[in-house]
Amino acid sequence: MHDDTNDFAPSAPVGKTFKFTNVGDNVNGYVENVSQRIPLNKFGTEQQDTDHNGNPRWQRIITLATPEGGDTDDGLRTVWMPVGSQMATAIGDAMKRAGAATGTPASGAFLKLTFARTRPSKFGNPAKIYVAEYTQPTNAQNKPLSETTASSWPTNANTWVPPQGNAPAAWQQ
Fold first, then answer.
1. CATH number, domain at 69?
2. Residue 157 domain-assigned?
3. Into how many domains does the chain fold?
């Protein structure tokens, strides 16, 4: 029997994909949405990738509401996170340090992700190592923000105010 629970799920907020190209690249903002698991395809194909044991690989899309943006930019940034990756571990460790429940980052939580360094890898390209900071939302109830709340956030970089009032220290530099 087919489980059609998510056949009509609302689309996730989308934004510009954030690329971690150089050591030191970072993105920070408030968690707007975290997708369900979706297949991680082999580069340049529509075929799902597998790990070295032949198991299918998955990814999640994290959408952040950032203070970036302006007239033609909504400030949303998406991060494509492979499940089981070092990036996922960095986020999970940051959530644990913040006292958050294990699982998916909560809507409204502050997340900063930094490409910290590389290390050699036996699989070809050097592995990217990430560091994450996570602050739980003030309501800490792990329930999504309403569409009205999320869409009412100003997106102009000069007037953007985080939904929790004061920006974390990282933004006040």
1. 2.40.50
2. no
3. 1
Which domain covers residue 46, as residue numbers?
A: 20-141
Rounded distance, CA 77 to CA 79, Å? 7
95-100 contacts: CB < 8 A, separation 24 or more?
95/134, 97/134, 98/134, 98/135, 98/136, 99/136, 100/134, 100/136
For residue 135, list its beta bridge partners. 110
Q: Give one DSSP letter per residue of 79-138, joined into a string.
A: EEEETTSHHHHHHHHHHHHTTPPSSSPPTT-EEEEEEEEEE--TTSSPEEEEEEEEE--T
In a domain, 28, yes or no: yes
Query: What are the pLDDT digits (tens) for 101-118?
Result: 888 999 999 999 999 999
Q: What is the mean pLDDT of residues 61-83?
A: 90
| CA 98, chain centre distance (Å) | 16
**Token pair recorded at residue 60:** 């999640």
pLDDT in tens, 128-142: 999 999 999 974 444
Q: Is residue 171 part of a domain?
A: no
